[in-house]
């Protein structure tokens, strides 16, 4: 009996399948569906809170958080209140989730609160600290004067502070003169 091209392709794909990769993507897909599904905000927040404990890497965290922009548009203040406990979590990916969600709030209304939170930030986990550095770099891009003033008196730990400076310098939206100034601000 002859096998068809489709059957050969199916066999080839099955032989190449990676169960871990499949698990990661089905996990990621679930988060994306929560972010994109048409439902009321209360129902969506319920699904979000059920999904957050499953976040176990930065990619799922960041993609999931970015898919929640519609939820933020539906209820900016409701979501702001919802993420507050995550910003105090001791769990690495819960706090990262909270910080990455703050990216939706880098605006005139919230910039002072974000920089104040940054000064209270204390966490040892790598991915939490990287999220904070990333947030500060985005704050700098959108609010350079306020963020520069913050950096000049920041209480951030040296590692997170230096990463924030590095990530800001790496941005293509920062001019050379500002990058040179930032380089002189790194802590030793």
What does this structure look like?
71% of the residues lie in helices and 0% in strands. It is an all-alpha fold and 188 residues long. The termini are far apart. The model has no long low-confidence stretch (mean pLDDT 92).
Keyword list:
12 helices
Low-confidence stretches: none
Name the helix and strand elements from N-terminus to C-terminus, one letter apiece.
Answer: HHHHHHHHHHHH
User: Mean pLDDT, rounded to whole units?
Assistant: 92
Structural class: mainly alpha
What spatial form do the alpha-carbon principal axes imply?
A: globular
Estimate what percentage of residues fall within beta strands: under 5%
Q: Which sheet architecture does the biggest sheet show?
A: none
Range of helix content: over 70%
Our Rg estimate from Cα atoms comes to: 20 Å
List the total number of helices.
12
Work out the number of β strands.
0
Oligomer: single chain
* Terminal CA distance: 72 Å
Q: What topology emerges from the helices and strands here?
A:
Elements: H1 5-16, H2 19-36, H3 41-51, H4 58-66, H5 69-74, H6 76-83, H7 92-102, H8 111-120, H9 126-142, H10 144-152, H11 158-170, H12 176-184
Helix pairs in contact: 2-3, 2-4, 4-7, 7-9, 9-10, 9-11, 11-12
